[in-house]
Amino acid sequence: MDFVIQNIWLVLLAAVSGFMLVGGGGLFGRLSGVKQVGPQEAVLLFNHQDAVVLDVREQSEWVDGHIAKAKHVPLGQLKNRLADLEKHKAKPIIAVCRTGNRSGSACGLLRKAGFENVHNLAGGMVAWEQAGLPKEK
After folding, report:
1. 92 with 52: CB under 8 angstroms?
2. Has domain 25-130 been given CATH number 3.40.50.920?
3. CA neighbours within 13 Å on the CB side: how many for 24?
4. What is d(CA 113, CA 59) in angstroms, rounded to the nearest whole number?
5. In angstroms, how far is the first alpha carbon of the chain from the final one?
6. Is 117 in a helix, a strand, or coil?
7. pLDDT of 32-90, one tens digit each?
């Protein structure tokens, strides 16, 4: 107990780090207005809310296979092509990349541009494929 009292900041830092590792990181996604969705939840959004899939991978990744009806805008071009997505502003948008990292950045750009119903496909195309869901070429 003496260790805890003498090192309270170290203990608090360790506790917060553990919280983030176990799943508290989703809290920050909710605070930023971006929800992480898994492949099955994404399918429900497509089927019931007419969600738009925004694939932000590079062309070489896109041609290897993508989610059907996805719109392809590589992350590096997204800022300059936001106007192309304006007509979809009222719909849910699900951003996807290979693992969910680049699409998370895309979600941030979309939120700053005024898109409110933005989702990130957690695990990206890797999770989509692991779930056995179809893709097209």
Report:
1. yes
2. no
3. 7
4. 24
5. 60
6. coil
7. 568 999 999 999 999 999 999 999 999 999 999 999 999 999 999 999 999 999 999 99
